[in-house]
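[Discussion] Sanity-checking designs against the backbone

I'm trying to build intuition for which residues belong where. Below is a structure token string of 159 positions. I'd appreciate it if someone posts a full sequence so I can compare it with mine line by line.
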């Protein structure tokens, strides 16, 4: 009887869930050609841009997604499966790319802040190698296949 009351309560609570649509809705998909030891996702954030920021106390660089009417942000993320019984085995990499929504299909032979905003993030227990990195040295070819589907070839270097 206790289990039945719990199920009814959960059913009633779940009926009250509301989804709020915002101006910068996003679409998230799982990528199939990902390394076997993790999960890769691709997300399109419409009406968004990347802002470059510096933390006041340490001077460390980080990025933030904000609203924009002229840009979209493409987010690629790789999350490695955590190793059982190993503390601090979490590892994640992200790529945030903000481009002009009117010029989605393009080839950029030298990425600069003027033609694309690109941030590579590595988050792990890796001393001196974790955090966000602004990318100003790389090449990008992007083609839109269909709505929220892109073919992206990206090569870059960071310090």
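Best answer:
Here's mine. Compare freely.
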């Amino acid at each position: 009887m206790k289990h039945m009351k719990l199920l009814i309560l959960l059913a009633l609570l779940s009926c009250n869930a509301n989804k709020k649509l915002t101006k910068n809705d996003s679409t998230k998909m799982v990528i199939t050609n990902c390394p076997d030891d993790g999960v890769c996702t691709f997300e399109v954030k419409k009406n968004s841009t990347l802002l470059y920021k510096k933390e006041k106390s340490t001077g460390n660089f980080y990025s933030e997604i904000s609203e924009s009417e002229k840009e979209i942000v493409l987010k690629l993320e790789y999350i490695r499966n955590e190793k059982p019984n190993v503390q601090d085995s979490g590892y994640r990499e992200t790529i945030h790319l903000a481009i002009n929504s009117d010029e989605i299909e393009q080839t950029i032979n030298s990425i600069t802040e003027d033609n694309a905003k690109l941030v590579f993030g590595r988050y792990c227990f890796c001393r001196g190698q974790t955090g966000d990195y602004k990318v100003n040295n790389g090449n990008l070819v992007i083609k839109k296949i269909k709505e929220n589907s892109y073919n992206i070839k990206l090569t870059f270097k960071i310090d």
